[in-house]
Amino acid sequence: FLHYFIDRCQEGFLVRNPAVLQLRVSFLFVKNVFEQEGFSRQKRGYRNINDIEVNMSDPLFTKQWYLINTGQADGTPGLDLNVAEAWQLGYTGKGVTIAIMDDGIDYLHPDLASNYNADASYDFSSNDPFPFPRYTDDWFNSHGTRCAGEVSAAANNNICGVGVAYNSKVAGIRMLDQPFMTDIIEASSISHMPQVIDIYSASWGPTDDGKTVDGPRELTLQAMADGVNKGRGGKGSIYVWASGDGGSYDDCNCDGYASSMWTISINSAINDGRTALYDESCSSTLASTFSNGRKRNPEAGVATTDLYGNCTLRHSGTSAAAPEAAGVFALALEANPNLTWRDMQHLSVLTSKRNQLHDEVHQWRRNGVGLEFNHLFGYGVLDAGGMVKMAKEWKTVPERFHCVAGSVQEPHKIQSGNKLVLAIDTEACQGKDNFVRYLEHVQAVVTVNASRRGDLNINMTSPMGTKSILLSRRPRDDDSKVGFDKWPFMTTHTWGEDPRGTWVLEVGFQGEEPQRGVLKEWTLMLHGTQSAPYIDQIVRDYQSKLAMSKKEELEEELDEAVERSLKSLLSKNN
């Protein structure tokens, strides 16, 4: 044993084996010897993909990698929505109605008919209660039907695939298929039957051309405000929005629907964990689900229902991502029907997972309270199992308050090569009734003009050091006249932070040609609560992890020092 011990010391084994550490004290005095019996231990929370037992007769179920990813279509095993855990707990969306605001639904489809809620459906394009898609030779109006199947396709009927919430009800709101949109059509759609419809899923928005800045008009804004305040008996309608398909040429903070505090903005990842090439990045994205892969594998798309009783493997885009999220939220609502619209956002932040999501440009970071986020993926991919378990025991979040933290009103010039840096010091309305202690959403309301709007870059840093990219360069945006007029750039990245202190706004230009501009206004709006016990616990856990990390570093240094001393001693003895 002595020779073995010396040999292992020399190999560096000593510092890594806790059983040997005791020998430092006794220094080779063996008191007792016991034969050890082996037994089994398992990592808690680890899910072996081969151990999942979900039996479905639907022919496309095994192709639905976003539900259970076993590596289909060159994907990464385990990278999915973890719906299997939610289903095994008994949650399938029963009693929840999701409205698909789109180009209509093929409600005669055999995989949708049994879950179709006709009473909650309407056609605002034709003004009748039958939102069936208008026929075109190229099946252009298949969008809504595909989205509906992701949410509510029936299970075990030998047709197509399975919806995320396969026992939920789906309503069709046809509102996209007309020559142009109007404020009243959008407002009517968003406010349709808010006491019956629980979740509204929208896979549309302003044109994703990299040069449009647009959002909801007056009536639609009022309808959304009424929805979150009065819908579902006062618990609030839940609006799920696709973050956009403009890719690196666009920024979803220029989309006033996706960047609204009242919506849950959903981005997408592909089946190997990377961002899709069409994904837009922005600080308002809350979480992610899945869309089609980058590779040309014919089964890497999203499998769902299609027009006229057909099925498809080719649904894609963040259009596919938003309905998946709506399905996950339906599972959570079944677990706890009392969840408010804000509860759903908190649950999304707390239970979404980094999993194996990654991007070459935007790295994962932690905000001031230790919550991990990504500029593309938000707080990560939705975890249905984790969400329903937390939802069951969830207590409604405290009252929400709004604070105008400060404002810069005088004009400031911006020039290429020099960043404009402005600061606002705030106490977050401390001492007043609307004091905000724990952040939810933060808005930077900005008025700025530039010789080329697309070259503008805006960053904001919180008092706790979290940097949000409010606006990225949009190379296709040549605007030199309109700029941004009181535009509410929004970030969710400072969720849970203490807003008191100095906020810093940096405005500059990116691009090859020199540009100039004027920032006329920056108003800082804080939205959040005065108490949030779970945030305090997260902070304690984060600080404990940091302390443990530092302790491990010190112990490693001590181990190395002891190892060097022992090696020196052994060398001298030899």
Account of the 3D structure:
It is found in: Secreted. The active site is at residues 102, 143, 319. Serine endopeptidase which is involved in the processing of hormone and other protein precursors at sites comprised of pairs of basic amino acid residues. Responsible for the release of glucagon from proglucagon in pancreatic A cells. This protein is of the alpha/beta class. It folds into two domains: 83-392, Peptidase S8/S53 domain (Rossmann fold, 3-Layer(aba) Sandwich); 401-531, Sandwich (Jelly Rolls), CATH 2.60.120. It contains ten helices and 20 strands. The protein has helices spanning 2-10, 18-26, 83-88, 143-152, 183-190, 218-230, 318-335, 341-351, 384-392, 533-573; strands spanning 97-102, 122-123, 169-174, 199-202, 238-242, 263-269, 287-290, 302-305, 311-315, 365-366, 372-373, 401-408, 412-415, 420-426, 438-450, 456-461, 467-471, 484-491, 501-509, 516-529. The strands form five sheets. Strands 2-3-1-4-5-6-7 form a seven-stranded parallel beta sheet, sandwiched between helices. Strands 12, 13, 15, 18 and 20 form a five-stranded antiparallel beta sheet that branches. The longest helix has 41 residues, at 533-573. Mean pLDDT is 90; it is low at 13-28 and 39-47.
